[in-house]
């Protein structure tokens, strides 16, 4: 009798896990509508505002300029407009502005107007963070399942810094970024970069590291990923370079 109960319980657990995996892999099940924009699929419950369609198209243009772009993968953008999917992903993977994994970019905030969304009590650029998520999708397409983070175990400063560089790398010099970095206290303090964009202090540091390696040492993306220097070693070089530049 006990063995039968255990088997039934195990079967029930496996059934629920299978159902959860199915929902995660096929978000369209939880949405009322889907729309295709230039080959990218948007899942949504409510009609798409015209300004959001424009934001997606603008983000796609930035994505296509990324150095690792090899053609648009089958990206799925999941909106937070009433479906259970974003909340489910948040509970499984943690909170973020957008949660990017595999070929999916899942919105956690809510759209409030043209290129604006609200999360954590702050208004941020929808386009910036949508583009950020989709470039992570490009990394997944570029590296494949086993070599993409978290399984690929690439250093966070490289993985995130590359994305920030593609988005924000031409907005400020290294010296200007360093001033903004120094002006924030906590790693998760928000840093305003102008033009309605910004990010947290920790990501400013990642951006600076990659910007230095790309623009001053001529590294490519693959060279960045394969480089054996530690974050601390590169940071020391970076600070020395900024010090010399500012003399």
List keywords for this structure.
single chain, three-stranded antiparallel sheet, 50% helix, five-stranded mixed sheet, Glutaredoxin, 247 residues, 9 helices, alpha+beta
Number of separate structural domains: 2
Low-confidence stretches: 8-16
- The outline comes out as globular
Major sheet: arrangement of strands = 1-2-3-5-4
CATH architectural grouping of the largest domain: 3-Layer(aba) Sandwich
Q: How helix-rich are the residues, as a percent range?
A: 40-55%
Alpha carbon gyration radius:
20 Å
Q: Main beta sheet, described?
A: 5 strands, mixed
What's the N-to-C terminus distance?
81 Å
CATH topology of the largest domain: Glutaredoxin
Chain oligomer state: single chain
Nearest-integer average pLDDT: 90
Q: Count every helix, treating DSSP H or I runs of 4 or more residues as helices.
A: 9
Q: CATH class of the largest domain, anyone?
A: Alpha Beta
Strand content: 15-25%
User: Structural class given helices, strands, pairing?
Assistant: alpha+beta
What's the helix-strand series? HEEHEHEEEEEHHHEEHHH
Structure summary, number of beta strands = 10
Q: Care to give the gist of this entry?
A:
It contains 9 helices and 10 strands. It has helices at residues 2-25, 50-63, 85-93, 126-143, 156-168, 174-183, 201-215, 221-226, 231-245, and strands at 33-37, 40-44, 76-78, 98-101, 104-107, 110-113, 116-119, 122-125, 190-194, 197-200.
Write the layout of secondary structure elements.
Elements: H1 2-25, E1 33-37, E2 40-44, H2 50-63, E3 76-78, H3 85-93, E4 98-101, E5 104-107, E6 110-113, E7 116-119, E8 122-125, H4 126-143, H5 156-168, H6 174-183, E9 190-194, E10 197-200, H7 201-215, H8 221-226, H9 231-245
Parallel strand pairs: 2-3, 3-5
Antiparallel strand pairs: 1-2, 4-5, 6-7, 7-8, 9-10
Helix pairs in contact: 2-4, 4-5, 5-7, 6-7, 7-9
């Amino acid at each position: 009798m006990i063995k039968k109960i255990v088997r039934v319980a195990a079967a029930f657990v496996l059934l629920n896990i299978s159902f959860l995996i199915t929902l995660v892999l096929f978000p369209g099940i939880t949405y009322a509508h889907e729309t295709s924009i230039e080959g990218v699929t948007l899942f949504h419950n409510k009609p798409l505002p015209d300004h959001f369609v424009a934001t997606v198209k603008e983000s796609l243009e930035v994505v296509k300029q990324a150095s690792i772009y090899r053609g648009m993968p089958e990206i799925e953008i999941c909106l937070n407009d009433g479906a259970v999917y974003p909340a489910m992903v948040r509970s499984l993977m943690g909170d973020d502005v957008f949660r990017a994994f595999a070929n999916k970019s899942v919105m956690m905030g809510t759209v409030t107007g043209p290129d604006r969304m609200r999360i954590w009590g702050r208004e941020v650029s929808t386009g910036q963070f949508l583009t950020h998520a989709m470039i992570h999708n490009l990394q997944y397409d570029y590296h494949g399942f086993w070599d993409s983070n978290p399984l690929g175990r690439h250093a966070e400063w490289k993985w995130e810094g590359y994305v920030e560089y593609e988005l924000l790398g031409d907005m400020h010099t290294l010296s200007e970024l360093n001033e903004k970095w120094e002006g924030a206290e906590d790693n998760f303090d928000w840093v305003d970069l102008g033009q309605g964009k910004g990010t947290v202090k920790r990501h400013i540091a990642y951006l600076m590291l990659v910007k230095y390696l790309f623009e001053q040492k001529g590294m490519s993306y693959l060279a960045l990923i394969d480089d054996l220097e530690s974050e601390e070693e590169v940071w020391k070089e970076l600070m020395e370079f900024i010090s010399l530049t500012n003399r």
